[in-house]
Amino acid sequence: MDYKLHNGSGGLCCKGCSRQDNKLNTYDWLADIPGNAEEGEMVEVQFKNTRKGFFRNSNKIDLNKGDIVAVESTPGHDIGVVTLTGRLVPLQMKKANLKPDIEIKRVYRKAKPVDMEKYEEAKSREHDTMIRSRQIALNLNLNMKIGDVEYQGDGNKAIFYYIADERVDFRQLIKVLAETFKVRIEMKQIGARQEAGRIGGIGPCGRELCCATWMTSFISVSTSAARYQDISLNPQKLAGQCAKLKCCLNYEVDCYVEAQKRLPSREIELETKDGSFFFFKADILSNKITYSTDKVIPANLVTITGRRAFEIINLNKKGIKPDFLLESDQKAAPKKPIDLLEQESLTRFDKRKTGGNKEGGGSNRNKKKRKPNPAGSPEQGNRPPRNERNDRSNRSNHNSHNNRRPNRNDNQQKTDRNQQSE
Predict the structure, then answer these.
(1) Core-most of 95, 115, 215, 223, by most CB within 10 Å?
(2) Distance from the Cα of residue 130 to its chain's centroid
(3) Are 91 and 42 in contact (CB under 8 A)?
(4) Fold assignment, 121-196
(5) Nearest CA among 261, 147, 272 for reference residue 197
(6) What own/partner pairs with CB < 8 Å and gap ≥ 24 does 325-329 have?
């Protein structure tokens, strides 16, 4: 049996990249596997921003990622986009910690044009409703902030997402909102991180916020995570767009804690014959420690490895003080720092070396190489002394001067002498 893919290029998982909001996007890498959608009747549906739900496809509708469907709600129905089908849906349900006895609602049908008209009409009222509800909460002197409003697909219910530091009695607020907007009201409290995920944005790393793309559960972040990684406790740098500590501080804490075990305690002083050395700073991942001869200010800084530090500590416990903090093979001349910007300099090809050719290229490739001495010739060590070589050169110059070509005056003097003799 031959399987034919839906895309013309022949690549796999073309339907896994179909239309979907970037927020909490799940890549369906099994989308093009034949029979994947029929493996189970559960589907994942995404609504506005980061709100998702799992529904049962009891009517056996042929659903693919990106289809707009009408699902069961209380009351009426809601409109959402299918984001996952097939074998990956149970894994996502397990990740979301859904209880097995929870009531699973059904998928009614694919959205019709009439459903889409009601849906667009309800969505167009969300912004005005949010502004009006904020004014009502302010008039009731409630210490809360309404961050977002989401209408149901049929327009019969509205969900108000709010943030509050303390417990808020919003019973009177619900009555006023119901009378004002003529819909069923549902209040849902969210945190600052969830609000940032619903709004979205770009983080300092240049990518979209983690809370808006893949994070569903938010673990508390403390300043101890920054201390383990030797990060400066600067609130402006540690805080994210939600004004809370960045969630990414927890990503590498376990790695730093494991690497910290290979370094000695910061309270231990190292004793040598040169004096005492105190901890100054540590590069945890490269397993290097820098010590100073002063507790307060950096003075005579020396960087050693964690293995060398443990060796000195063991020697100090035995009452032995080494001569130097560094090992004998580490006391070489310091390496010349490499200037990375010099590699990109615009004038790096203009530099000339002495002894180059006439064109200033500074290259020695055109120079003639000295031929090796043939067999039987005297070696360089058997050459005559320097003074003897100079005398030979002088005699050769004198002979060449005597053997020079006679000029016109010399010929005239010879003819005159011949005439006198005659």
Answers:
(1) 115
(2) 36
(3) no
(4) GMP Synthetase; Chain A, domain 3 (3.30.300)
(5) 147
(6) 325/270, 325/272, 325/274, 325/277, 325/291, 326/302
Measured between alpha carbons, how far is 264 from 269 in angstroms, rounded to an integer?
10
Torsion of CA 173, 174, 180, 183, to 10 degrees: 160
d(CA 177, CA 139): 12
Inter-axis angle of helices 171-181 and 126-139, nearest 10: 140
Amino acid at 377: S
Pairing of strands 52-56, 105-110: parallel
DSSP state of 362: -
382 residue type, one letter: N
- What does 166-182 look like in DSSP terms, one character per residue? S----HHHHHHHHHHH-
Of the candidates 46, 82, 93, the residue with the CA atom closest to the CA atom of residue 198: 46
The set of residues, in sequence order, having a beta carbon less than 8 Å from that of 325 and lying 6+ positions away, is: 270, 272, 274, 277, 291, 302, 304, 308, 312
**For the chain, which residues make up each domain, given as ranges?**
15-111, 121-196, 219-259, 262-330
Condensed to tens digits (0 to 9), the pLDDT of residues 142-160 reads 999 998 899 998 888 999 9
419: DSSP letter: H
Measure the CA dihedral 73/75/80/86, to 10°.
Answer: 10
All residue ranges of the chain with pLDDT < 70 are: 1-22, 37, 100, 328-346, 348-349, 351-422
Q: Environment class of residue 403 by beta-carbon count within 10 Å: exposed (0-12), middle (13-18) or buried (19+)?
A: exposed
What the block records as the tokens of 362 is 């500074």
The residues pairing with 78 across neighbouring beta strands, listed in sequence order, are 71
For 190-217, how does the pLDDT look when each residue is reduced to its tens digit (9 = 90+)? 888 888 888 888 888 888 888 888 887 7
Q: What's the N-to-C CA distance of the chain in angstroms?
A: 130
The letter for the amino acid at 143 is N
* CA gap 168, 375 in Å, rounded: 105
Peptide bond into 204 cis (omega under 30): no
